[in-house]
């Protein structure tokens, strides 16, 4: 069996790596040379935790985190930093089932804190009454770019092929047509081209299956709020984590849909909104401070969200749709997707 994978982001690299590990009889070619512009994997904040409100996503994230923590080679390849995670929930949020999943997969990691307990432990200000949080000890952030680089090296070492050729179209044969003009047939083709996937499907005359592109942006400020690792505030969507030796990364969701992933354009108003919202919540960054840097990229979204293998037509699949969260789920999602392909 021969599988052709388009895209050498974290999704393409890990599904190829899983295939080589679980089914060495399968020939795997990964096409990595995409269009210009940084990809989602290179820009990613890399926050990883077990908690997600949606139970299947929670199980995926928790399983992936347990695998990462239990495998020293993976942990080191991904430059995992265990700084903990705080997920702030609005009053009345129902989290019994995801917290049960966390306890099963990562025993002793998660605690549910009330607003008063939160104020005692963390630098949050002005939280609405009734707000609670899921706090995880065994969580933090990793480098998707480093994990991708390691996976591509493992693929090449284990007999897979990494081709630095952009793919122009895919046909239902299934086959891939490279920019060098060569067409190559496979038993299965997987489009893991992240935010470039919808355009590649359209260029190939195939349906996009509801996949869309959305901008993601964050800024890094000098200095950090004391005692805080990674955090997400669900109602505003604010998120952040320590960055480098002394910086702190902060972001809010963007509302820019259907952007061109090859030409990311910073949303200046969003940079200001992030600083104002963070100042209200954390007292950081101090007034007048400009970011050290702002990262702008995009990801491929699907409704419902989730990195998963989706069939486009017989033999042609997409493996994308992480919707801004695939760093958390890619380990488990790639394992499941490789098992389906191998069957
Ligand atoms: C700014 C930002 C912050 C994020 N933060 C987090 C976070 O904190 N936690 C979390 O869980 N998730 C986060 N995410 C989401 C996560 O990083 C992404 O879901 C994930 O990296 C997507 O990986 P991918 O491989 O699907 O796409 P990409 O990384 O974009 O990779 C797609 C690859 O396909 C290649 N390609 C495209 N077209 C072609 C072609 N025609 N031929 C060959 N190759 C092609 C591209 O060059 C690219 O390398 C973030 C995303 C962004 C953008």
From TrEMBL:
InterPro entries: FAD-dep_OxRdtase (IPR006076), FAD/NAD-bd_sf (IPR036188)
SUPFAM superfamilies: FAD/NAD(P)-binding domain
Pfam families noted in UniProt: DAO
Lineage: superkingdom: Bacteria
Span of domain FAD dependent oxidoreductase: 3-338
Annotated signal sequence range: none
Gene3D superfamilies membership: D-Amino Acid Oxidase, subunit A, domain 2, FAD/NAD(P)-binding domain
Protein name, as recorded: FAD-dependent oxidoreductase
Species whose genome carries this gene: Amycolatopsis speibonae
């Amino acid at each position: 069996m021969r599988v052709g994978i388009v895209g050498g982001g974290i999704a393409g690299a890990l599904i190829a790596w899983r295939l080589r590990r679980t089914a060495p009889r399968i020939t795997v070619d990964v096409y990595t040379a995409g269009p210009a512009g940084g990809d989602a994997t290179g820009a990613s904040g890399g926050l990883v935790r077990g908690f997600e409100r949606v139970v299947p996503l929670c199980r995926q994230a928790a399983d992936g985190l347990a695998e990462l923590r239990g495998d020293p080679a993976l942990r080191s390849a991904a430059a995992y930093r265990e700084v903990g995670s705080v997920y702030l929930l609005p009053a009345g949020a129902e989290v019994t089932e995801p917290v049960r999943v966390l306890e099963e997969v990562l025993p002793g990691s998660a605690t549910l804190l009330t607003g008063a307990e939160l104020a005692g432990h963390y630098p949050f200000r002005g939280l609405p009454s009734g707000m609670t949080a899921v706090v995880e000890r065994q969580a933090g952030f990793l480098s998707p770019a480093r994990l991708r680089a390691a996976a591509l090296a493992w693929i090449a070492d284990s007999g897979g092929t990494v081709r630095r050729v952009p793919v122009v179209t895919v046909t239902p044969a299934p086959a891939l047509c490279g920019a060098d003009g060569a067409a190559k047939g496979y038993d299965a083709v997987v489009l893991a081209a992240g935010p470039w996937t919808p355009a590649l499907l359209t260029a190939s005359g195939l349906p996009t299956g509801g996949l869309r592109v959305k901008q993601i942006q964050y800024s890094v400020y000098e200095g950090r709020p004391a005692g805080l690792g990674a955090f997400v505030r669900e109602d505003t969507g604010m998120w952040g984590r320590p960055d480098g030796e002394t910086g702190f990364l902060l972001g809010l969701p963007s509302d820019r849909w259907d952007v061109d992933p090859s030409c990311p354009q910073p949303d200046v108003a969003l940079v200001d909104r992030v600083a104002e919202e963070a100042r209200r919540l954390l007292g950081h960054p101090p007034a007048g401070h400009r970011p050290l840097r702002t990262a702008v990229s995009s990801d491929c979204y699907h409704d419902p969200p989730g990195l998963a293998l989706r069939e486009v037509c017989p033999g042609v699949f997409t493996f994308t749709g992480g919707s801004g969260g695939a760093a958390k789920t890619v380990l488990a999602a790639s394992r499941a997707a490789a098992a389906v392909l191998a069957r």
